[in-house]
């Protein structure tokens, strides 16, 4: 029987041996994509090529390649932890895995579908894709789940039963190759992942006590005109929870924060602020501090410009401006009677779309609930706002965490808020009263019962994730295998996400280039030929001075029929298993589009640019592979569908 396990990436902090102005080797044919490798078990770093001694390296440490040299018939690599000349030593090439494009697998939560099987070779996986989920597959799957794979099995591993969130606990399953294939009528990909069997797994981490599990719950509340009664009812709900936590001796297990938002204060100065943090999660540990500060909050005394508010400014403040460290479960409750200004709204202060905000929250491991007050005054916007907030609050594997309060009824709002806050607190803190799911109030309100069911599932998922992290739950380690990115039983279901590790500098370059393309396109909307001429001129400028707008291949600057051909898209994106809307745009198509379609395209581009800006500025999300401070070489596992 084989013990196969999926590897978390542990990175070794190495003291640089040398520091000079040298640059890593470029991948042939590229101008800004450097050669990189990952170390395998028992790899060592030596002072000189050919030296058998050296410092052992943690498996899957990532390095840049600065030099390749032959020594006694064997190739050696001079490696560094960054691209600025911080050299670490020499490693035998056979002890490394080439990993140039920075692609990695993120396994989705396996709840509700088969865990991913990993095959020894490409041929076995192709046979599976062709035959589908037959009796042979069923037998292999059972053997893998039971840990009883025979020696001659084509399957060498299975995805772990639990889910580990790559945004909270960064791990690497490097992708070395990929091929398109078909599962019935659905297109899928076969992925070759790096693998190394570890015979002696490291000791298990010490078990953590359940009472260390904590939650942060931040209310993001609309503080525009006529919201006073909802602000007061929120204060009352939190006061009830504090009392229950205090009675149970569980104060500090659930900490509350509060952010208030209005509309663009630059457009209506009488609003005083667009978004403001009234209570931080640290301050919210103390009931007295929370209630005192919330007591100072009141609704605006002047009207906004229209029926929409800048809700996403409040959410961005709560997501990126709040210190969430130390909180294992993270929740935001958005309370508003108005739709949110999308990023393309002239009065939006964030430039973020609904998709951008949802992605930013998920990047930070935060679930967003929305309590939408459907007051008569905003009736004309109810349908559009509901669709917007359903999308915003969609949590992977759970569904939409949205509740619409009909007529904005304060009593119903209070009941739902008490239930939501109480249920979250009860899941975290021992001894806190849990709202009864079969109470008369809930029985007579099927929408509240449905929301409670989702809160229950969400709380369970977050707690299981915590227990796996802190009670010895460990990922199996798997190396050198082939896998499918879609479910063999349900081919339309994607079971893994492919992410690309972009550095902070690369994301900044991408933002700047696309910003320039956007400006050029906006200026040329009324004159397509002017736009094309300006675009070619801009491409030529990048070719002459790539540092000005971010390095690209620019091999055909001023030529070609797409942004990629003209050299706008960095070579760290070219060749990925993804073709985005911007990357694949034909300039002939652009010329044939009506102005309205061009404007819609530019709005979507603007949304991506705003997301890149927000992600770049959120330093808590960036991972330094050398364990140093966040820098331009720090990385983030960006979902492929967030590329341009």
From TrEMBL:
This protein's name: Serine/threonine-protein kinase PpkA
Keyword Transferase: yes
Family matches, as InterPro entries: Thr-specific_kinase-like, VWF_A, vWFA_dom_sf
Keywords from the UniProt entry: Kinase, Signal, Transferase
Record Gene3D superfamilies: von Willebrand factor, type A domain
GO MF terms, alphabetically ordered: protein serine/threonine kinase activity
Gene Ontology cellular-component annotations: cytoplasm
Pfam families reported in the protein's UniProt record: VWA
Residue span, VWFA domain: 216-424
Record-listed E.C. numbers: 2.7.11.1
Signal peptide interval: 1-19
């Amino acid at each position: 029987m084989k013990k196969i396990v999926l590897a978390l990436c542990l990175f070794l902090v190495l003291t640089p041996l040398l520091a000079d102005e040298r640059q890593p080797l470029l991948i042939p044919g590229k101008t800004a994509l450097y050669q990189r490798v990952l170390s395998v078990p028992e790899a060592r770093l030596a002072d000189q090529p050919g030296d058998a001694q050296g410092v052992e390296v943690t498996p899957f440490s990532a390095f840049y390649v600065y030099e390749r040299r032959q020594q006694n018939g064997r190739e050696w690599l001079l490696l560094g932890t960054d691209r600025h000349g911080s050299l670490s030593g020499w490693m035998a090439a056979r002890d490394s895995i080439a990993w140039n494009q920075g692609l990695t697998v993120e396994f989705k939560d396996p709840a509700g579908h088969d865990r991913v099987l990993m095959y020894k070779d490409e041929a076995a996986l192709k046979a599976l894709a062709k035959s589908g989920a037959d009796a042979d597959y069923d037998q292999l799957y059972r053997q893998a789940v039971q840990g009883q794979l025979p020696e001659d099995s084509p399957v060498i591993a299975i995805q772990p039963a639990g889910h580990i969130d790559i945004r909270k606990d960064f791990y690497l399953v490097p992708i070395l190759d990929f091929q398109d294939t078909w599962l019935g009528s659905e297109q899928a990909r076969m992925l070759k992942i790096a693998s190394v069997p570890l015979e002696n797994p490291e000791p298990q981490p010490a078990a953590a006590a359940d009472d260390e599990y904590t939650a942060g719950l931040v209310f993001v509340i609309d503080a525009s005109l006529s919201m006073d009664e909802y602000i007061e009812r929120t204060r009352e709900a939190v006061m009830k929870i504090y009392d229950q936590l205090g009675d149970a001796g569980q104060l500090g297990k659930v900490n509350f924060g509060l952010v208030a938002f209005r509309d663009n204060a630059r457009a209506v100065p009488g609003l005083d602020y667009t978004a403001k943090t009234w209570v931080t999660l640290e301050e919210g540990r103390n009931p007295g501090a929370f209630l005192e500060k919330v007591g100072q909050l009141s609704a605006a005394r002047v009207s906004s410009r229209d029926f929409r508010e800048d809700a996403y400014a409040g959410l961005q403040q709560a997501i990126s401006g709040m210190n969430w460290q130390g909180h294992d479960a993270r929740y935001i409750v958005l309370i508003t009677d108005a739709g949110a200004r999308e990023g393309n709204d002239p009065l939006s202060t964030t430039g973020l779309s609904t998709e951008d905000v949802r992605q930013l929250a998920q990047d930070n491991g935060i679930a967003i609930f929305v309590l939408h007050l459907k007051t008569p005054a905003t009736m004309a916007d109810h349908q559009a706002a509901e669709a917007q907030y359903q999308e915003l609050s969609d949590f992977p594997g759970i569904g939409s965490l949205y509740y619409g309060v009909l007529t904005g009824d304060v009593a119903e709002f209070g009941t739902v808020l008490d239930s939501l806050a109480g249920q979250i607190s009860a899941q975290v803190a021992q001894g806190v009263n849990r709202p009864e799911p079969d109470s008369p109030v809930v029985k007579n309100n099927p929408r509240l019962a449905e929301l409670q069911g989702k809160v229950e599932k969400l709380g369970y998922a977050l707690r299981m994730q915590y227990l796996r992290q802190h009670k010895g739950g460990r990922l199996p380690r798997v190396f050198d295998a082939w896998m499918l990115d879609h479910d063999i039983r349900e081919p339309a279901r994607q079971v893994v996400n492919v992410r690309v590790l972009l550095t902070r500098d690369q994301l900044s370059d991408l933002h700047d280039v696309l910003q320039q393309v956007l400006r050029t396109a906006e200026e040329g909307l009324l004159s397509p030929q002017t736009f094309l001429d300006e675009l070619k001129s801009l491409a030529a400028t990048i070719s002459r001075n790539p540092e000005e707008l971010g390095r690209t291949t620019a091999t055909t600057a001023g030529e070609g029929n797409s942004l990629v051909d003209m050299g706008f898209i960095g070579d760290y994106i070219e060749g990925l298993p993804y073709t985005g809307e911007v990357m694949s745009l034909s300039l002939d198509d652009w010329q044939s589009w009506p102005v309205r379609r061009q404007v819609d395209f530019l709005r979507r581009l603007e949304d991506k640019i705003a997301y890149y800006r927000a992600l770049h500025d959120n330093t808590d999300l960036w991972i330094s592979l050398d364990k140093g401070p966040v820098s331009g070489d720090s990385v983030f596992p960006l979902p492929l569908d967030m590329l341009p």
